[in-house]
Specification:
Number of helices: 12
Distance between the termini: 19 Å
Number of strands: 15
Structural class: alpha/beta
Largest sheet: 6 strands, mixed
CATH architecture of the largest domain: 3-Layer(aba) Sandwich
CATH class of the largest domain: Alpha Beta
Order of helices and strands: EEEEHEEEEHEHEHEEEHHHHEHHHEH
Bound molecules: adenosine-5'-triphosphate
Strand order of the largest sheet: 1-4-3-2-5-9
CATH topology of the largest domain: Hexokinase, domain 1
Helix content: 25-40%
Length: 362
């Protein structure tokens, strides 16, 4: 449930929300009761199982005997850049034609289509205490030195915040001090190795993909590639990195979930090494994001992976890499870092956007 800080929404209205990711597609139907949105129904579909998003949503509504005309409004959060009238779902390699989707689902208000990190940023506003866990509680209390410059003499909630979200892909967004959410495609920027080992990792990934972005490293598929890289190095440290199809792999077919489970159970040293490398690179890129966005209000780790690797994030590797920015270490040490435990955050955000569309701020 969440409060809506907007006037003019009538009781009993129904809103469609969707979170379309590279692995899972969540659809939700929310009812507005008073000023709260209450989840009425939710379904989770593997994204690889559908080709026609309209048919999927029609089927979802059919199950509860609703037609699009019976729904007040809706918003879908899409894991890919939205340009003009198209969205490229990067990790599904599919294109959504926005006008076609809107006209095939004639809700009472036009369907909104937003980037998934915009929806996640909106959903953040509705999270409760139990939905977040702080990795560095000593940074949580407002710091005088952060608040002291005249332009930043604001309470911490009014400072910029940023989101970094590893899942099937890697999402990044900035939440401005005034609450506006700016999704970015920053995760497709160039991966910058920091150690000799990471330089070898870069070379390994460059042979496979050409362009090595942060998403190639900090995602479920990236985790599997980190494992393959360490596996290859352990097997033949003196050989140059191989082309992807020539990697000998009795064990390298582990899924990301298997790697993290074995690592957290302490039963596979290579899996532990993989997860520790992943967490360090995530810390380093979270620090880069904090610097780029001046996210003094906090860094939020979203997406499907962080809640599943929480014990590793709570060890020293993540924070050490986050802080390792030379002369700005002290500044970064004052930024709180939170893991978002609620995996419905983008769905909540989409519901909030759907209900708020067309309503004047209260
Ligand atoms: N326990 C785990 N440890 C590490 N990775 C995992 C685990 N479970 C699932 N994954 C990986 O997480 C990814 C799915 O992430 P998520 O649940 O955020 O899906 P999604 O919302 O569809 O992704 P996105 O929004 O990034 O497109 C997959 O690559 C999957 O292999």
């Amino acid at each position: 449930m969440m409060d809506l800080p907007y006037a003019g929404i009538k009781k009993g209205q129904l809103y469609l929300a969707g979170d379309i990711g590279g692995t899972k597609t969540l659809l939700g139907l929310y009812s507005l009761e008073g000023t709260e949105l209450v989840l009425v129904r939710e379904r989770n579909f593997p994204s690889k199982d559908w080709q026609d998003l309209t048919a999927l949503i029609q089927g979802f509504l059919d199950e509860i005997s609703l037609t699009p005309e019976g729904i007040t409004g809706g918003c879908l959060s899409l894991a890919g850049p939205i340009t003009q009238d198209k969205c490229f779902l990067t990790n599904l390699n599919r294109v959504i034609h926005c006008p076609d989707l809107r006209s095939s689902l004639p809700l009472r208000r036009p369907l909104l289509l937003v980037n998934d990190l915009e929806a996640m940023g909106q959903g953040l506003m509705d999270l409760r205490g139990e939905d977040l866990i702080c990795l560095n509680p000593s940074a949580e209390s407002p710091s005088p030195s952060l608040a002291s410059p005249p332009a930043l003499s604001l309470a911490r909630p009014s400072l910029n915040r940023a989101l970094i979200a590893p899942g099937t892909g890697l999402g990044q967004a900035m939440i401005l001090a005034d609450g506006r959410v700016c999704a970015t495609e920053g995760a497709h920027g160039d991966y910058a190795p920091r150690t000799e080992q990471e330089i070898r990792l870069w070379r390994f990934l460059a042979q496979r993909y050409g362009h090595v972005s942060y998403e190639r490293v900090l995602s479920g598929p990236g985790l599997a590639d980190l494992y393959r890289f360490l596996y290859w190095e352990a097997l033949s440290p003196s050989l140059p990195s191989p082309a992807s199809d020539s990697i000998p792999t009795p064990d390298s077919s582990l899924t990301p979930a298997e790697i993290t489970k074995k690592a957290l159970d302490g039963i596979c040293p290579l899996c532990t090494e993989t997860l520790e490398l992943f967490v360090k690179i995530l810390g380093a890129e979270a620090g880069n994001l904090a610097l780029r966005t001046l996210a003094y209000g906090g860094i939020y780790l979203g997406g499907g992976i962080p809640p599943k690797i929480l014990p590793k994030l709570q060890e020293d590797g993540f924070m050490e890499a986050f802080l390792a920015k030379g002369r700005l270490r002290e500044l970064l040490s004052q930024i709180p870092i939170y893991v978002i435990l609620n995996e419905r955050t983008p769905l909540l955000g989409a519901a909030r956007l759907a209900a708020a569309a067309g309503c004047p701020p209260a």
